[in-house]
Each structure stands twice: as C-alpha cells, then as structure tokens.
Amino acid sequence: MGMCLSRSSGPVKKRQSKRLTNQSAAAVNGGGSNRWSRNRSSKRDDSIIQERALAAAILLQQQMQNGGGGGAVPFDRSASLRYPNSNSKKNQPLPRSSSSRARSLTDPLLQPHQLVNQEVKVDDLETNHFVLVHGGGFGAWCWYKTIALLEEAGFKVTAVDLTGSGIHSFDTNSIASLSQYVQPLTDFLEKLADGEKVILVGHDFGGACISFAMELHPLKVSKAVFVAAAMLTSGQSALDMFSQKTDSNDLMRQSQIFIYANGNDKPPTAIDLDKSLLRDLLFNHSPAKDVALASVSMRPIPFSPVLEKLCLSDSKYGCVRRFYIETTEDNAIPIALQQNLISNNPPERVFHLKGADHSPFFSKPQGLHRILVEISRIP
C-alpha cells in the first residue's frame, strides 16, 4: 500500500485527459443465462481462485522458511504455467470485450472469449509483454488473478518482487534508497534484448517505481499504466504527493506502525500496517479469501524510498506513453487525490474502474484485465 501519511483536500484542477468509463450493460451473446447457471459458474470460479490463493500462501510460507539466504527466490508466477491451456495457440485472437456484459458485485471471472475484440491478435501488437509492479507492502503474489487472465489471453507476463518485498529475501529495514528498492525491476529491463519493449504496470507506490525505471530505460518501455498509483512529477516524492491534501486520513494514520530498527532516536526505517485495519483500508470491496492471503503475505514498507524525490526528464520519462486507472472506492488513495495527480501530470488517457477498492486486482480483476488489454491495443 502507499505511504498515505497525510492528505489534504482542496480544489481539484480540471483534468486534461480523456476519461474512459468502465460500464456494464446487457450480457454477451444476447441476454444472460438463468440465475442458477450463473451461481453455479460463480461457485466453480470461486473454488478455482480459492485453490490458487491457498497454493500461493503455502508457497510463500515455505519459501520464507527455507529461503533465508541473500538472494531472491524465483516466483512461480501463476497457476496457468502449471496447468496450461491445451487449446491456446500462438496467434490466437484477443478475447471479445465484456463492456456489454452485466457485472455482479463480485466481478466474476468470465471466459476469455467474452473479454475484448477478437479481431486484434496478440502478435499484431507492439508488445505482448506486461511487467507488473506491486505497491508498498505487497509483492508479486498480489497479481495472481491478473497474471492468469493475461496469460490465458495469450500475453506474456512478468510479476516482479521489489527488494525486500514478497519472497525477496532482504531486510526491509536495510533499504536505503529508491534505486535499491527498484533494482529487481531495473535489472530485469537491462536484460531485455535490444529492441524488446514491455508495458509497465505500477500499483500504489509502484507508480513511483515504474517512473524511476522509465527514466533509466525509456526505450524499453512501450507504455506505462498507473493503477491507483503514485504518478509523480519531477522533484516530487511520494511523501510530498500525499502531503498535498489538507484533511488527514484517520484510517491511514490509525493503521500505520512505524518501525525504528536503528533506534527510536533515528528516523523510521519502515512502516507496517495494522492487520486488523487492512480490510477497511485496502480491501473494502475485495473477497475475504484475498484479504486472508494479503494478511499473511504483506511485509513492511521501506521508509527511505518514500522520502526520495524523483528526477524525471521530458526526453526520457516524458517520451513514454502514460495511462491512469482510477479506483473509485479507494480508501488508501482517495479518488480526489488520484484526480490531483492526473491534473498535475496528465497522462494520455484516464480509465475509470467503477466499484474498485485500492486493490482492483482482487476486487475487480475482470475489469482491470479488460482495461489492460484495451491499453495494449491502443495504436
């Protein structure tokens, strides 16, 4: 989660970006199925997701117990790698749009053919490789639904554990800079072949992380997607961003637990979150099983990177196409703050994910997936 130490309200500037709204309408293929069929399908999907979540939690616990060394443990990115779709083909078309399908409150997983326009093929895109960057306290594990959906649609997906996050074996309290925190991402980009590009997706504080990477490797980033994320301007830190608001967020302040690994007379080294307040702060519309997964998987947030001001240039960071996905029911980065970020640093387009909390990969995985695919198709 992001470092929302304090927030101010104040007038929101008029945005210069085009807003695209995620709306629901009639069911795909002319009318919906009966209620019994929908419930049976939803229960079957819930069972699959619960099995994946449990497997991810067990994997995380085992790796944390057995890792212990100085390096990162490889992350088994999704169940789709273990259970490949035998019907998938290299040149399969992208699935059809779900924008005309009625959506339930739980945003049930739909079949791939119900998602997006089938006329565009994955291989026709500038890049079919998504790189997912988690927010503060999260890890690569939080993207498990998004990974499965994108891979089933024919995309290549990499979810990165930043330093001291997820199952990366490093002491969070020892992270002294943003470059150190983002190093797993920048190392990955450096190893890409010449001419190879990816779509960077950053959530929460991951927005500052992908901005840092865009400045270093602009030619390796086709597009950047900020999901309820810190989309900073040059000379701004994440702490500066949240200090823009004058009204404090009581829930955020109540949930923060400062860690002083170097002594109480020294600056904080990390921030942890009160587990009892996680649901209300980050997962107010997310399924209970995903909240349970997060409660045993989240790690403290390193403090030094939050204080660091970014140096972003028009010639590097500015040449990468940027897109923003708003989350309307967000208690961690309220929609008003998201709109301030957009007004101060307008992206190419703004997408509006209705009903999403701060963790849309849990609360609205299907809607988030549809938008990501749409962004990949923008010429």
UniProtKB/TrEMBL annotation:
Pfam families: Abhydrolase_6. Residues 1-45, 69-108 are annotated as: Disordered. Residues 130-368 form the AB hydrolase-1 domain. InterPro entries: AB_hydrolase_1, AB_hydrolase_fold, MES/HNL. Residues 83-95 have a biased composition (Polar residues). Transmembrane segments: none annotated. PANTHER family: METHYLESTERASE 11, CHLOROPLASTIC-RELATED, METHYLESTERASE FAMILY MEMBER. This is Methylesterase 11, chloroplastic. It comes from Solanum pennellii (Tomato).
